[in-house]
Amino acid sequence: MNLLPLRFTPSASHARAREAITRFMLSRNMAAGEKLPPQAELVKVLNCSETTIQKAMKELVDEGIVRREVGRGTYLLRLPEAVELEALAPAALTVNGRVAICALDDRDTRPAYSPGLEILHATEQRLLTHNGVIETRLAVCSSLKMLTDLLQEIQPDGLVLDWRFNPLDAGAWRIQQHCLSLEYPVVHCFHVYHPDVSAAYQICIDNQSIAFAAMKHLTALGHEHILVAASGNAHDFQNLRLAAIEHFCQVSGTRYQVSLAPSGARDREWLEAGHAAFARWITIPRKERPSAVFALNDQIGLAFVKEARKAGLKVPAEVSVVGVDNDLHHRLEFGIDLTTLDPCRAEIGNRAAEQVLSAMQTRTPHEHHVIKIQPKLVNRGTTTQLAC
Predict the structure, then answer these.
(1) Residues of the chain whose pLDDT is less than 70?
(2) What is the pTM of this model?
């Protein structure tokens, strides 16, 4: 593994070494589950003693940031939030101009409400409240032609795109190539990180960290057998979360089962996944039944909790449930306060605005830059300590 050269004196303390290690993880955009360099390499790069590195790594282990596996190495569990915010904090900006904010989506198949709209809203709010004067234009485009027509009409100085369909599709690739040809900065917001995407500025949801955080929360409460509730339809974000769950369970020894609902209509797939997960869970003999459920989005989790309560079960006393999205719309619709992992879409929008403003001000050329946003646990009472 090639490391960035860091200038430290031989007398560097373990506190400075710890900071250097965390900044290395940030500079490489490491995600939960990735392996850190061997200790010997860190000693050489940081120019400090093995004892200093060991003390720094012990602090990171104690804080739940990394996990050591005997004979295998050290793996990242989550990025330290304070360091991440400090490293990426934007400078004060004063920019004037016009910014297009566009969702790339098929408007005919997407419901009127989507959590992804939070990204567009946060982006526009941050642009409108900064020190300069920014004119914004919101739009939804489902093809390259729609996008080029929009850009030709408004002649923006910057562009923010929220990708709601797969950026690896053929049509999406043409949009990426067109964006690379533009003379003004383009910031891409992705709900799944795609390393092969042709985009200079990328801000992404960290799906691996979401899965690790949910599993860590449940296992910290004593749950050693977990049902993972997912849709039977193919979704990149779901595949990443399932892979991260498998890795977590291999490392921690946690037992898990996956409930995949039969593939069905997109407009009801999440609710059906929640119903299917409960139907599977309730048929498992009580002594063998998972004590907790990790639903891969809030709709699945809310549907599971609703079915459980209809059956006379107590949540979380008889089963703990955690979801993903911090979805206000469906939380109000179901009337259930679900413990959830917030992917911080508003933060993605804020970062997108800061990124496009910074690029507009400095007029820097296109360069590859990726920011992965860390999730936050929102505990609303559908998870609890496992009773002995």
Answers:
(1) 1-14, 24, 26-29, 45-47, 80-93, 107-116, 264-267, 364-368, 388
(2) 0.76
Q: Establish whether domains 14-87 and 207-343 are of one fold.
A: no
Total count of residues recorded for the chain: 388
14-87, CATH topology level: Arc Repressor Mutant, subunit A (1.10.10)
Contacts of 281 (CB under 8 A, 6+ apart): 227, 259, 289, 290, 293, 304, 319
CB 93 within 8 A of CB 130: yes
Q: What percent of the chain has pLDDT over 70?
A: 85
Q: In Å, how far are 161, 194, 287 from 165, measured between CA atoms?
A: 11, 12, 42
* Burial of 29 from C-beta contacts in 10 A (0-12 / 13-18 / 19+): middle
The amino acid occupying position 40 is A
User: Top-level CATH class of 95-206+345-374?
Assistant: alpha beta
The superfamily (CATH) of domain 207-343 is Response regulator (3.40.50.2300)
The domain ranges of the chain are 14-87, 95-206+345-374, 207-343
Q: How many CB atoms lie within 10 A of CB 381?
A: 12
pLDDT digits 0-9 by tens, 336-376: 999 999 999 999 999 999 889 988 887 765 566 788 898 99
